[in-house]
Description:
Elements: H1 3-7, E1 15-23, H2 28-33, E2 36-45, E3 50-53, E4 59-66, E5 68-73, E6 76-81, E7 85-89, E8 94-97, E9 102-110, H3 114-124, E10 128-129, H4 136-145, H5 153-174, H6 179-191, H7 198-204, H8 209-220, H9 224-242, H10 247-253, H11 259-270, H12 274-285
Antiparallel strand pairs: 1-2, 2-9, 3-8, 4-7, 4-9, 5-6, 5-8, 7-10
Helix pairs in contact: 3-5, 4-5, 9-12, 10-11
Amino acid sequence: xxxxxxxxxxxxxxxxxxxxxxxxxxxxxxxxxxxxxxxxxxxxxxxxxxxxxxxxxxxxxxxxxxxxxxxxxxxxxxxxxxxxxxxxxxxxxxxxxxxxxxxxxxxxxxxxxxxxxxxxxxxxxxxxxxxxxxxxxxxxxxxxxxxxxxxxxxxxxxxxxxxxxxxxxxxxxxxxxxxxxxxxxxxxxxxxxxxxxxxxxxxxxxxxxxxxxxxxxxxxxxxxxxxxxxxxxxxxxxxxxxxxxxxxxxxxxxxxxxxxxxxxxxxxxxxxxxxxxxxxxxxxxx
Length: 286
C-alpha cells in the first residue's frame, strides 16, 4: 500500500479551516540522498479533532501558531503551545488532539539522515521544542514547496535540514545553560533581524552588560555578539540559497545595516563573499 494511503486520514472531524493537504512527489535522487517532504497542511482545529496512529514509516513535524495541542508519544503526555515544535517518529504509536481552538502547520517527511536526527533529538531533548520563533518561516516555505514538482527537492532538503539542525543546536544547548542565559538566547533568536544592542539583551534578563557577557561566554562558549552574528550569518546563508533577494536586501533583513558590513562579516566567517557563496550553492543544486 502506498504511504499516502496509509498515512492520510480522510474526513477528519474538528477541522474549522485548512490550507492543503499539499502532496509532494520527490525524485528518485532525492529519495535516496536528500531530506524530502511527503505531504502537509496548515489547520485551524477545535475539539473533537483527534488523530491516533499505530505506525507509519515516516516522520512528522508540527509548528503551533496559536492555541494548544495535546500529544501522547513514547509513554509521554505533553502539551505544545504557540511557537512550539513537535517532532514525531511515526514508527512509534502516537496520538494528538485539541481540546480548544488551535492553529498549526504539519508535514510528513523522510530521507537522508531523518531517522538519525529524530533519534538524536529524542535522546537529547524529547519530542517537544519550546519557543522556536525563528523557524516559523521555514514551515511556511515547506508549505509553499510541497505542491511543487521535483525541481523543489534541493531547496526543500535545505529547509528541512535547517529545521532539524536548529533543533539539535538549540536543544543541546538548553541542557547546558541557565534559564537566564537560555532566555537571552531565545530573545536573540526572535529579534536578530532587528538592530539590537547587547545592553538590550542583558536588560531582557535583568543583568548588567558586563556580567551578562561574562555569564553568556562561560555557559555557551561564545560572546553574545558572536552568537548574534552567527544567527545573522546563518539566516543570510539560507536567504542566499533560497531567495533571489539582493545582497543589500539580505543585509538589511539581517540587521547588518549595509551590504559592505555583510560582505565583510561573511567573508571573514566563510572565506567567500555572499556572491561567491550564492554562485557555489547554485552550481551545486542546479
